[in-house]
Design goal:
Chain lengths: 111, 115
């Protein structure tokens, strides 16, 4: 099993550009989430999904979109990048109420 | 809103010292509790978790945590730390049976172990 795979690992964007962070899991987990990690703030939930076709907003959803067309994939789209979105992004998946398995992260810099 | 507080942001210990990292949460209902570790440059890994039963849970790498319901606490402990325990530690809480299985994280504690 590969677990949770995120691409790319690093990305630099210019303000106003859009991009998609990819996330895929091969564990048939129903729950998937996107978090951003900023120094001193822990991880904050951006969006989450409870299954294919079902997504919802987390704590900091503004500027981000998600979709979940399959159980395996949960891409995160930045619509118009801003410097405030410079962060490390983690995708995670979970089965039922169990703990989440995290991907290796994407370090995004917006200039 | 539910919140998770970690008492210390930075902790520096010498090798073989004992470790205790504090974690308190604000939600009064039934919760699931987790400790994650993030080694430098890596992703989060689950150290241990508590759902129910014995409030003293043992995890990987010699870590343990105690759930004290009356204090809304879930403190992480290790009797003797090693240099390789240098990492950032996150406490996280989810509400049992809540829609979405959402985890709320504390701000993290950076542990540096001096050799």
């Amino acid at each position: 099993n590969a677990g949770v795979t995120q691409t790319p690992k690093f990305q630099v964007l210019k303000t106003g550009q859009s991009m998609t962070l990819q996330c895929a899991q091969d564990m048939n987990h129903e729950y998937m989430s996107w978090y951003r990690q900023d120094p001193g703030m822990g991880l904050r939930l951006i969006h989450y999904s409870v299954g294919a076709g079902i997504t919802d907003q987390g704590e900091v959803p503004n500027g981000y979109n998600v979709s979940r067309s399959t159980t395996e994939d949960f891409p995160l789209r930045l619509l118009s990048a801003a410097p405030s979105q410079t962060s490390v992004y983690f995708c995670a998946s979970s089965y039922g109420g169990d703990g989440y398995t995290f991907g290796s992260g994407t370090r995004l810099t917006v200039v | 809103a539910q919140s998770v507080s970690q008492h210390n942001h930075h902790v520096i210990l010498s090798e073989a010292a004992s470790l205790e990292l504090g974690c308190n949460y604000s939600y009064g209902g039934t919760v699931n509790l987790f400790w994650y570790v993030q080694y430098p440059g890596q992703h989060l890994q689950l150290l241990l978790k508590y759902f129910s039963g014995d409030p003293l849970v043992k995890g990987i790498k010699g870590f343990e945590a105690e759930f004290i319901k009356s204090k809304f606490s879930f403190n992480l402990r290790k009797p003797s730390v090693q240099w390789s325990d240098t990492a950032e530690y996150f406490c996280a809480v989810s509400r049992a049976m809540e829609y979405g299985n959402k985890l709320v994280f504390g701000a993290g504690t950076i542990l540096r172990v001096k050799s």
